[in-house]
Amino acid sequence: MKKYLPQTWQDTKRLILIIAFSVAAFFLVLGADPASAQSADPVQSGSVGLTGTISSPPPSQGATITVPSSGQTFTEVPVPVRGLCPDGLLVKLFKNNVFAGSVQCEGGAFEMNIDLFTGTNELVARVYDDLDQPGPDSNAVNVEFVDRRAGAGTRVSVTSNFAKKGTDPGKTLTWPIIISGGAGPYAISVDWGDGTSPDLLSEPFPGVFDISHIYEKAGVYNIVVKVSDSNGAASFLQIVGVANGPLSQTNSTEGEDETPAFISPNSTRIVWWPAAITIPFIFSTFWLGKRYMLRTMKKRIERGEHPFADI
Fold this sequence. Notes:
By secondary structure, the chain is α+β, with helices and mostly antiparallel strands. The chain has helices at about 10-30, 35-40, 275-300; strands spanning about 65, 75, 80-85, 90-95, 100-105, 110-115, 120-130, 135, 140-145, 155-160, 165, 170-180, 185-190, 200-205, 205-215, 220-230, 235-245.
């Protein structure tokens, strides 16, 4: 075994270089942990950020209205409308080309309640992607609404220029609503879909007014606005509210376990295995190197040589 030991100071320097390389590799492996990289702030001082939208084709598949069917006559509202749709898209329903309500398609199906104009109503559903690009129109369904109120005048109607709006949890979501027809004053009920008590409002005249709400949890919520006029007629509007952020198991459910179904990308995870493997190797290599150097110097002295003659 003696002939394999380092015999010159050059061999010892090579050993020292190996030790230095091992130390550098240890810190490189420890610093390259993906979890540590994710925990760093991606926005650094002096950096320039760019944002953009990647274009994509509009939806090629439209919705299909299955309920109600053409030719039906209704005397009461709201009227349930159900159908099929591409999963994940927003479904907007129109009656005589007037926005009547919206809902998010889930599991390839949609359902919402709407009101109707007096007389003939042509119902058409249209899907929209996240870029608000429309897909093909659904089949057209023609239904009749007969208002049986004595001396009924123009029915009250409620709509909005927005089918879907969102904000961050803890911030106020404000939504403009439009009332037309009927006779004031109007009683308004707004169910925000998050299990809180409905808001009760009053408006003396038709026109535009704002409703507002603060969502505590991230999620997608079905908002139902009901407007009743002084003649007892009622109108309904269903729309989609969004509280931005990662979804949890309880975004739209009350009274269940509130453990989130996601892991925050800002959480820090410390990996110990590089240190556990590398540190013993570094110390053992350093100890062997020192021992080899001392033995080499001792042999040079015994031979009458200068221990550092070849430096």
